[in-house]
Specification:
This protein is α/β, with parallel strands linked by helices. The protein is built from 13 helices and 22 strands. The radius of gyration is 28 Å and the shape is globular.
């Protein structure tokens, strides 16, 4: 959800910070109002599912060192390595590819090698110093003896040459006024194969003069990818809006297809590099249409497979010689949303809490600008606890979905300790790329490592670490939302409800999200997590969730704000459901008429 920038929020003195810390006179570790420390050292875990074990696991998995675990970045490899190491320690059977715990998605790093060269009139330009080629999703079209022409100013057609004057040329543009060069490949690569509509689409290549504000290391980083991308982009609708092609325009469609198969080369230049192209003339002194030398670019483009996008899969074989060929799937997503610009984490936390209080008081309806302007953060009280601003750029994803991922790991450890294993096998899948569109779940269900029709049910756990009254309406120490459990199998839904009645202290199961809900941020919850891909394959599902909160997709979603006793009760409950389903009759599908009653009484 979009939120106002902190710089726009008046910082007055009316709200206490959410993290009033306490410490004993003996110098014990400082804890927040929930009794959680900011950091926790790793320690051994036990076979029991306890608040302490969940703490130990989550403080590691959602640590800053994991870099937000974003799919396609090295942090996702770090997170999946952590899970796989635990599975190996617990002695689960590898359920991935080629005897491993991993199932890699086709994410590649794309770059130009150091053998690439750009020359003007036969003279080499300083590669990665005065000229940088920007890698995209395909190797660009060749640039051979292309005449240089000054095209004007980026983004201003009144100061540009006509499209006809750019055909086959190496077009040089000044940057858009007020713009600044992107630092690294993440700013340079447009997702998807289709290039953006361009006035100079028929040029041999386009170069922007915007490298001067970047350091040498930042210039090199443009061609040193830090983000891996899918081999093929997600399927989607055809582009619309300005620059889109009418389906009836077959010639236009063909041109776009050709451009997608071999896109136009994109370059970035320093002013000195641009002057070299125009025989020493400063580019700022040129008129649009001015001619320069002749450019040839010999670019060696490579695609390198990565392990930065992996599902992690482990299996506990069943004890029944026949039923062990069937599986109960238990899943969560191992990824989050990575890192972004640093902010003061303490003032952000206070702001997020204040905004969520306003949202609760507004019947969960979206807040308007006037309501947002009411927020005041007491910086004096914050600075008494933390005198120096603590900048933070990591979206740790402790609840989303560190809580689900570590809950699944705790369930695996608990079941491994059972003297007699459940009759059916349990398959544990930590999906990657949920935040990017359920990518890992889609990949697993299309390329399952066990027969998809042998999976009798899928229990999905996504965000089960919060659910307090201050987080959402109806929140409490007993709260958990259950979504979709009756949609495809009434048997599964009844099992979910029945197992709850046998808990030492039954949870308050909330089924309201089975129906459309008007709360801000809760649109289409059912289709927004990994279970949805299993349901599409005809597998009965149940989705467990304690709701959104003020720290959702924020740098403040950190382990210290999790409700660990509540989290442990939910995890134990889901473990009991998994064992019950694994030992009981296979959940029957409802057929063509989902059993979705308006009112469900547990």
């Amino acid at each position: 959800m979009p939120f106002p920038r902190l710089s726009r929020i008046a910082l007055g003195a009316c709200l206490l910070p959410a993290f009033a810390a306490t410490a004993s006179s003996q110098g014990a570790a400082r804890v927040n109002r929930f009794g959680n420390p900011e950091k926790l050292k790793p320690a051994p875990t036990t076979a029991q599912i306890t608040p302490r074990d969940l703490q130990i696991r989550l403080y590691q998995f959602a640590d800053d060192s994991m870099q937000g675990r974003q799919v396609g970045r090295v942090g996702n490899r770090k997170g999946t390595d952590f899970i796989a190491a635990e599975l190996k320690r617990l002695d689960l059977v590898p359920g991935g590819v080629n005897g491993t715990y991993f199932q890699s998605l086709p994410f590649h790093l794309r770059k130009f090698t150091e053998h690439s060269r750009v020359t003007v009139d036969g003279n080499p330009m300083a590669w990665n110093t005065h000229v940088v080629a920007v890698p995209g999703l395909r190797a660009p079209r060749p640039v051979t003896d292309a005449e240089v022409v000054f095209g004007g100013t980026q983004g201003d057609t009144t100061l540009q040459i006509p499209a006809s004057a750019a055909v086959g040329k190496f077009v040089v543009l000044l940057p858009q006024p007020g713009g600044r060069g992107g630092q690294g490949q993440g700013f340079a690569v447009r997702p998807g194969f289709t290039p953006p509509p361009s006035r100079f689409a028929d040029a041999a290549a386009v170069a922007i003069v915007d490298l001067d504000n970047l350091t040498p290391a930042q210039r090199v980083a443009i061609n040193e990818p830090t983000v891996a991308q899918q081999v093929a982009p997600p399927r989607g609708a055809a582009p619309t809006g300005a620059g889109s092609i009418s389906p009836a325009d077959s010639i236009g469609l063909l041109r776009r297809e050709l451009a997608a198969a071999q896109p136009q080369g994109a370059f970035r230049l320093t002013r000195e590099g641009a002057a070299q192209l125009f025989k020493g003339q400063p580019v700022e002194a040129l008129a649009p249409g001015a001619r320069g030398g002749v450019v040839t670019a010999s670019l060696e483009f490579v695609e390198l497979p990565t392990d930065w996008a992996r599902n992690v899969i482990g299996i506990i074989p069943g004890s029944d010689p026949i039923l062990k060929a069937q599986y109960v799937a238990i899943g969560a997503h191992n990824d989050h949303v990575g890192f972004t610009t640093p902010v003061d984490k303490d003032s952000l936390k206070a702001f997020n809490d204040a905004r969520n209080r306003l949202l609760l008081g507004n019947d969960m309806k979206p807040l308007g600008p006037e309501q947002m302007a009411q927020i005041r953060v007491n910086m004096d009280s914050i600075r008494r606890v933390h005198p120096t601003p603590r900048l933070d750029s990591i979206n740790n994803g402790a609840d989303d979905d560190g809580s689900g991922s570590m809950g699944v790991l705790e369930i695996a450890e608990a079941v491994m300790a059972m003297a007699v294993k459940p009759k059916r096998s349990l398959i544990f899948v930590w999906h990657t790329g949920e935040e990017a569109g359920l990518l890992g779940a889609a990949h697993f269900t299309r390329h399952p490592t066990v027969p998809i029709d042998s999976i009798v049910a899928q229990l999905n756990i996504d965000m089960i670490g919060r659910g307090r009254a201050e987080d959402l309406p109806g929140g409490s120490d007993d709260y958990v939302a259950v979504i979709g459990s009756m949609f495809d199998s009434k048997d599964l839904g009844e099992t979910v409800a029945r197992v709850n009645t046998k808990q030492p202290r039954p949870l308050a199961l909330d089924y309201k999200m089975d129906e459309p809900i008007a709360w801000a941020g809760y649109n289409n919850i059912y289709a927004r997590s990994d279970h949805f891909r299993y349901a599409q394959q005809g597998v009965p599902i149940a989705f467990f969730f304690t709701g959104l909160h003020g720290d959702y997709h924020q740098r403040t979603d950190e382990p210290e704000w999790i409700d660990y006793p509540h989290y442990a009760r939910i995890t134990n409950y889901i473990r009991d459901i998994a064992v019950d389903v694994a030992n009981g009759p296979r959940p029957r599908l409802n057929g063509t008429k989902p059993a979705k009653p308006k009112v469900i009484v547990p």
